[in-house]
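Bench notes, bay 3.
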Amino acid sequence: METIEIKDLVDYLQSHSDYIKAQTLIRNIPDLKRDSKLRIIVNKLRQQGVPIISSSNGYKYTEDKEEVYIYAALLKNRYIEMKKAHDGLIDWINKDK
């Protein structure tokens, strides 16, 4: 029933103009029981081009291109740092080969 959850999540976010805490979303969307499930669904939606941003304030649907651009830049920086961590771990695995 993931499709229903995704539609419910987008509809719920679109009906609010500000950030919504993860716990509020989980409480108000049927079958969305865990933070990790919420993150997976939000990630899938972003991959499809749905403009959902997030911060310590929660999640927010926005059509403000500047907000989305800033968030996309933040994601890119996280990706770069994760790649460095990944490479460091792989270097450690391979150091005595």
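Next record in the batch:
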Amino acid sequence: MLKRVYIKSIQSYLRDHEVDKMDPHDVIGRGGEIDMLCVAREAITEEVRKYIKIMEGSFGVEKNHYGLDRVKARIKPTEILWIFLVCIQLML
């Protein structure tokens, strides 16, 4: 999928700019707005950000489904403390 985004961005760049009249060092490798590779990298970055948003939402739904939103401790010392507190509540 990312290859397709990369190729489409390169094709649109070549279609929109007159590359034959430009300095090849400016088109490939120096960076900036006229660099073809930078434009392609930005297109991939935008696509990856879309996927991150989608996966983040999906993970949030799955996390709630499996009850992981109720996890109180994320590191070992707080986990031990929570186990201790739950045991004390059960004894009372």
